[in-house]
Write a structure and sequence with these properties.
single chain; 671 residues; alpha+beta; Amidase signature (AS) enzymes; eleven-stranded mixed sheet; two-stranded antiparallel sheet; 19 strands; globular
Length: 671
C-alpha cells in the first residue's frame, strides 16, 4: 500500500503572510531565487501553477538528448557541439495525459509499470501546484518556507509517486517505491513541488551516463561532462530548469556537479540529513541541496536537516543543531576574527599538470578575496603544505593498522599476515620522532580503506525493505537489467557483478579511516587555530565526455575533484569562483608513451572507475579556449554549517561569480 507524504508538525506550523515580503521588481524566471518566487506569489504576479508551467516550457526546450546515439541509448555515443540540450531530468512528475499534451517522450513517464497512473492520492506536479494555489487564495498565506519552490530529486532517492531505479534500465514489478525518502516528505510538507527525478551516473557512479536516462551534458559546453554522479541535479539548477535540486555524494557528487554548473552545493555533515529511502546507502553517503545561491541552499537545508529515527546516523545531530535557521547565516557580513587555512597540498602547480594551473590561480585569488573580507588567511605559500607536518605527527598512531599495512618495508609481516617485528615499538618510535615518518604521508595520500562489502549489503537491504515482487537482490539487478555497451565508458554490468562477489560486511577499516582523518584534521586545525579551510572543488575544469580519466597524479584523481576530506564526514560548501579562459584536455594517443600499470590503484581511478582500453597511452592537448566554471570548497568542522554558510555568503556577495549558461537563456515570452 502506498503511503501519502507525512507532514512534520514543525513544518506544518510554518506559515508566512503577505506582510513578510515587499515586491521590489517584476518577476523574471531566469536566476529566480526562492524569495523572488515567493514575493511574486504574494504580490499575485505569479501562481505555483504558472511557475511549474514556465519550468516545463524550459524543460521541453532544453532537456532533450544532447549526444548522437546512432545505435540507440545503450550504444556508443559521440558528442555534439552546441547541442542546446542537457538531458538532465530523467522522469517528469506528470500524469500520462499531461505528459502527452506537453509533447514529452513517454520514457519520461513517472511510472512504466502503472500505465494508467490514475491514483488520486498521487497528484502530479501541476495538481500539487493547483492545490497550493487554491489554499493560498483562501488564506493569503504560504504553505511553508518552500512554497512554490520547484525541485528535482536525484533518482537515487525514493519518491512514492515516481519511479526510482538509480538510473538503471531494470524491470521492477513496481517501479515506484512504497514511500518517500524522509527528506522528500519534509520538502513536500514545506511547500516544495517535486517536478522531476534527475538523471545520474548509474548507481551513483562517477560518470555522466545511465542506462535508462542516457548521457547528459554540461550547460556551458555540451561536449563536456556535468560531473557525476548527481549530474542532472547540478545541470538542471545551473540551466534554470528548476529552482533547486537534491543531490547525493559519497565522494564529490554534490560539489562536483554544482561546480560544473556554476552553482552552490552543500555536502552537509554526514550525520545531519537522513539517508532513509536511498538506493545504495553507505557510511560516506550524504544528502544535500544544489541551488544557484548560498541563501537558497541554506533554505533547503533548513527543511531537510535533523534527526530521523529511520536513520540512526542522524542521532549524532541531536543537541548539535544551530539555534537559528541556517539561512540566517547567509547574510553577507565581514569575516573579521575568522582564520581560514588554504590547503596548498591541493594547489601546488609543481605536483600536477598544466591543466590544473588556471583553476589553482582562480582559487588562490579566492583566498585573497576572503582576506579582503576581513578574514585572517593562513596560506603556507604556492609550494607549501598546510597540514603535512601535523599529519606526520599524529596519523601513524591514529590510523595504526591502516598505516602499517601501507608500509610493509617498515612494518614487516609473515606469510600469514602476522607482524614479524614489533609494530607497536616502531609506532612509538615514529610518535617520538615524526621526521622518521614516510615522506609519502600527506593529505594527498593519507591512505584508503579496502572493499568492505558495504555496497552489496546496503543495496540488498534496500531492496528487501522496498519489497518488490521481482527485484529482490543485487543479483536480480544484474539479471533483469539492460546496460549500455560503449568501450569508452566504464562497464556498469561488470561493476554490479563485482559488487556481487562480496560475501561479508566489514566496515572496520572504513570507520577507522574516517575516525583517524577526522581526529587528525581537527587537531591540525586546532593547533593553527583555524575555523575553516578552502581549496578548489576540482583542479580540472569539466572534461570532455568520453575522454580518458588518466591515473591519479599526486593524489588528484583523473577527474580532478577533491573528495577525501568531505568523504570522511566534514561539511563542505562549493561556491562559484570564476571561469576559465582556456583548458588542456587529455586525449588517447597510441603513439604517446605508455603509462605504467601500477599508476592506477587496484580499485580503479578517476571517480572509482576502472582503466579503459587506450587509457595507458594519453597526452595533454591545448591550450583550448573555453569558458568553464571553477568553484572553491569551504570546509568546516562537523556540524559547523552555519560558519561555512556565513563565509560562502560573504564571498558570493563580494565576487558575484555565478553566471547563467549563455546557450540556455530565456525563452520567447518568458518573464
Amino acid at each position: 500500500m502506498r503511503r501519502r507524504p507525512k507532514t512534520p508538525a514543525l513544518l506544518a506550523a510554518v506559515l508566512l503572510s503577505a506582510s513578510s515580503f515587499v515586491q521590489a521588481a517584476p518577476f523574471h524566471l531566469e536566476e529566480a531565487t526562492i524569495p523572488d518566487i515567493q514575493q511574486a506569489i504574494l504580490a499575485k504576479e505569479l501562481t505555483s501553477t504558472r511557475l511549474v508551467e514556465l519550468y516545463l516550457k524550459r524543460i521541453k526546450a532544453y532537456n532533450g538528448t544532447c549526444v548522437a546515439e546512432p545505435k540507440g541509448i545503450l550504444g556508443p555515443i559521440t558528442t555534439i557541439p552546441n547541442a542546446g540540450q542537457l538531458n538532465a531530468l530523467v522522469t517528469l512528475n506528470l500524469r500520462p495525459k499531461t505528459l502527452k499534451k506537453w509533447g514529452f517522450d513517454a520514457r519520461k513517464a513517472r511510472s512504466l509499470t502503472d500505465k494508467a497512473d490514475g491514483d488520486p492520492q498521487m497528484p502530479d506536479a501541476l495538481e500539487v501546484a493547483a492545490a497550493q494555489d487554491a489554499a493560498f487564495a483562501g488564506t493569503g498565506q504560504l504553505a511553508g518556507p518552500l512554497h512554490g519552490v520547484v525541485m528535482a530529486i536525484k533518482d537515487q532517492y525514493d519518491t512514492f509517486d515516481m519511479r526510482t531505479t538509480s538510473g538503471a534500465d531494470v524491470d521492477y514489478a513496481n517501479d515506484r517505491p512504497p514511500e518517500d525518502s524522509t527528506f522528500v516528505e519534509r520538502l513536500r510538507a514545506a511547500g516544495a513541488i517535486i517536478i522531476a527525478k534527475s538523471n545520474l551516473g548509474e548507481y551513483a557512479s562517477g560518470i555522466p551516463r545511465s542506462s535508462y536516462g542516457g548521457t547528459f551534458c554540461n550547460a556551458y559546453d555540451t561536449e563536456r561532462s556535468p560531473r557525476g554522479s548527481s549530474s542532472g541535479s547540478g545541470s538542471a539548477v545551473g540551466a534554470n530548469l528548476v529552482t533547486c535540486s537534491i543531490a547525493e555524494e559519497s565522494g564529490s557528487s554534490i560539489r562536483g556537479p554544482a561546480s560544473a554548473a556554476s552553482s552552490v552545493g552543500i555536502a552537509a555533515t554526514e550525520e545531519l540529513v537522513s539517508r532513509k529511502g536511498m538506493v545504495q546507502i553507505g557510511i560516506n553517503t550524504r544528502v544535500g541541496p544544489i541551488c544557484r545561491t548560498v541563501a537558497d541552499a541554506a533554505r533547503v537545508l533548513d527543511v531537510i536537516a535533523g534527526y530521523d529515527p529511520k536513520d540512526e546516523l542522524t542521532a549524532f545531530s541531536i543537541g548539535r543543531m544551530p539555534k537559528d535557521a541556517y539561512v540566517s547565516y547567509a547574510k553577507p557580513t565581514p569575516l573579521a576574527g575568522l582564520r581560514i587555512g588554504v590547503v596548498r597540498e591541493y594547489m601546488n602547480k609543481k605536483l600536477f599538470t598544466k591543466a590544473d594551473e588556471q583553476t589553482i590561480d582562480l582559487v588562490s585569488q579566492g583566498a585573497e578575496d576572503l582576506k579582503k573580507l576581513g578574514a585572517t588567511v593562513v596560506d603556507p605559500g604556492p609550494e607549501g603544505e598546510l597540514f603535512t607536518a601535523c599529519i606526520r605527527k599524529y596519523a601513524p598512531q591514529d590510523s595504526n593498522a591502516l598505516y602499517t599495512k601501507r608500509f610493509p618495508e617498515v612494518f614487516p609481516v609473515d606469510d600469514k599476515g602476522e607482524p614479524s617485528a614489533d609494530h607497536t615499538a616502531k609506532l612509538i618510535d615514529l610518535a617520538m620522532d615524526p621526521s622518521k615518518v614516510s615522506e609519502k604521508l600527506s593529505l594527498r595520500d593519507f591512505g584508503t580503506s579496502e572493499g568492505d562489502g558495504q555496497n552489496k549489503y546496503f543495496i540488498d537491504l534496500y531492496l528487501r525493505q522496498r519489497g518488490d515482487a521481482k527485484i529482490k537482490t543485487n543479483a536480480d539487478l544484474i539479471s533483469y537489467a539492460r546496460f549500455h555497451q560503449d568501450p569508452t565508458w566504464p562497464d556498469r554490468k561488470k561493476n554490479r557483478e563485482n559488487v556481487q562477489k562480496a560475501k561479508a560486511l566489514d566496515m572496520s577499516n572504513r570507520l577507522l579511516l574516517r575516525f583517524s582523518l577526522q581526529q587528525v584534521i581537527l587537531q591540525c586545525m586546532a593547533e593553527q587555530q583555524l575555523d575553516a579551510l578552502v581549496y578548489p572543488t576540482s583542479n580540472l575544469p569539466p572534461t570532455k565526455l568520453g575522454a580518458p580519466q588518466g591515473p591519479p597524479i599526486n593524489g588528484r584523481n583523473g577527474g580532478g575533484v577533491w573528495s577525501f576530506i568531505g568523504a570522511q564526514g566534514f561539511p563542505v560548501i562549493s561556491v562559484p569562483a570564476g571561469f576559465t579562459t582556456e583548458v588542456y584536455d587529455l586525449i588517447r594517443d597510441p603513439s604517446a608513451p605508455k603509462t605504467p600499470d601500477d599508476a592506477w590503484p587496484k580499485t580503479g581511478a578517476g571517480g572509482g572507475e576502472s582503466k579503459l582500453a587506450g587509457d595507458d597511452h594519453t597526452r595533454l592537448v591545448g591550450p583550448v579556449k573555453a569558458v568553464l566554471p571553477v568553484a572553491m570548497d569551504i570546509v568546516g568542522r562537523p556540524f559547523d554549517e552555519p560558519l561555512i554558510i556565513r563565509i560562502a555568503a560573504a564571498y558570493e556577495a563580494a565576487t558575484k561569480h555565478r553566471r547563467s549558461p549563455p546557450a540556455f537563456g530565456p525563452l520567447k515570452g518568458e518573464p
